[in-house]
Write a structure and sequence with these properties.
Elements (H helix, E strand, L loop, with lengths): L4 E4 L5 H12 L3 H4 L10 H6 L3 E6 L2 E11 L2 E9 L8 H15 L4 E7 L3 H9 L3 E8 L2 E9 L1
Parallel strand pairs: 4-5
Antiparallel strand pairs: 1-2, 2-3, 3-4, 5-7, 6-7
Length: about 150
């Protein structure tokens, strides 16, 4: 794979971001008995608000992350990588970009959640320094919440 570039998403990325979400999250549908929330996200609105960062290569869009400030918190809402690009550190690169952005903006922590059926994420986030801080039913999903001190 060619080198990966990280940049803010633009309007013309929306279709590719939606495709990435569909392809990355479809594997969880059977585990959850429903489509994960990112499969129905308003990416056009999130891109317009500056919440989305993309990873691209010569092949096109290979991943994205949605993150934003909400009051005194900085939230990482979702991250996805095209399945054929998985295991190459693209997700980690996107998360590190969010962490640097949040720290530069003066935030002390990043908050995120994942679905309890996404066991790969529950294993991965602690390896990146995130600590599980709780579990609860939220917006109809069984979510696991994590926090990381920056």
């Amino acid at each position: 794979m060619s080198s990966v570039q990280i940049r803010e998403a633009i309007e013309t990325d929306v279709v590719d971001i939606q495709l990435c979400a569909q392809q990355a999250y479809v594997k969880y549908v059977q585990r959850m008995d429903r489509e994960p929330a990112p499969m129905h996200a308003d990416f056009a609105g999130q891109v317009a608000r500056g919440y989305v960062t993309v990873a691209t290569s010569q092949a096109g869009l290979v991943g994205y992350v949605v993150a934003y400030s909400e009051g005194s918190q900085f939230k990482l809402e979702s991250v996805a990588v095209m399945p054929d690009c998985g295991g190459r550190g693209i997700g980690k690169l996107l998360i590190e970009h969010v962490e640097k952005t949040a720290k530069h903006a003066g935030y002390k922590t990043i908050e995120l959640y994942t679905n309890e059926a996404m066991t790969e994420n529950i294993t991965m986030y602690p390896k990146l320094g995130y600590i599980e801080v709780g579990r609860k039913l939220d917006d109809g999903f069984n979510r696991v919440f994590f926090s990381k001190l920056l």
